[in-house]
Amino acid sequence: MNGREQWGTRAGFILAAVGSAVGLGNIWRFPYVAYENGGGAFFFPYLFALLTAGIPLLIMEFTMGHKYRGSAPLSYARLNKKTEWIGWWQVGISFVIATYYAVIIAWAMAYAYFALGLRWGEDTQGFLFGEYLQLADVPGQVGSIVPSVFIPLVIVWVIALGVLFKGVKKGIEVANRIFIPALVILFLIIVIRALTLEGATVGLDAFFKPNWSEIMSPGVWVAAYGQVFFSLSIGFAIMITYSSYLGRKSDITNNAFITGFSNSSFEVLAGIGVFAALGFMATQAGVPLDEVAAAGVGLAFVVFPQIINTFPALNGLFGFLFFACLVLAGLSSLISIVQTFVAGIQDKFKVSRAKAVAFGGGLSALISILFATQGGLYFLDAADYFINTFGVALAGLVSVITVVWFVKKLPELQGHADSVSDMRLGLWWKICLGFITPVVLGYMAVQNLIGNLRDNYEGYATSFLLYSGWGVAVAAIIVGFIFASMKWGKNDLEMPKEEKGADL
Question: How many whole angstroms separate alpha carbon 143 and alpha carbon 140?
Answer without folding.
Answer: 9
